[in-house]
Amino acid sequence: MNEEIIIAGFGGQGVLSLGKILAYSGMMQQMEVSWMPSYGPEMRGGTANVTVILSDERISSPILKQYDTAIILNQQSMDKFESSVKPGGILIYDSNGITRHPQRKDIQIYVIDAASESAKMSSTKTFNMIVLGAYLKIKPVVTIENVIKGLKSSLPERHHHLIPENEEAIKRGMEYIKKVA
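Above: the chain sequence. Below: its structure as tokens.
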């Protein structure tokens, strides 16, 4: 198994945290992992992306030009990364703020309304976990149990009381993901 993922959106959406939790979860499953963040100097509000590779074998390079899965959380990222999904790959996007929806016919496209679902949960900080749940519904590359372990490893202990809320958000994302094409 080798899964190459790009997660991209605005700073402040939890893009890097989502990638980090996914990487930690892979480590909990004894996978080889790579986590390579990229963000501008403006951080919050600017664009950010992270490449995550989960593999059963050694990873030769963290630098990729094409991805098995793209998780897109804003229009700029859609414009930049839609063409980078490998034919037959998966593109998942949050519809909030998207003005030009994906057009490709050679990939599977899914939509999750994570922004509105996190608002319904009264916690916008669960946004990225809703997105993670949507991804794991389609590609269960790591188990929920290992995601919880990954959360415990990546979150400071003072935030561990939020883990049940994050677990609920993951489950919500699994429920609300919809296939588009």
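The chain has one domain: 2-179.
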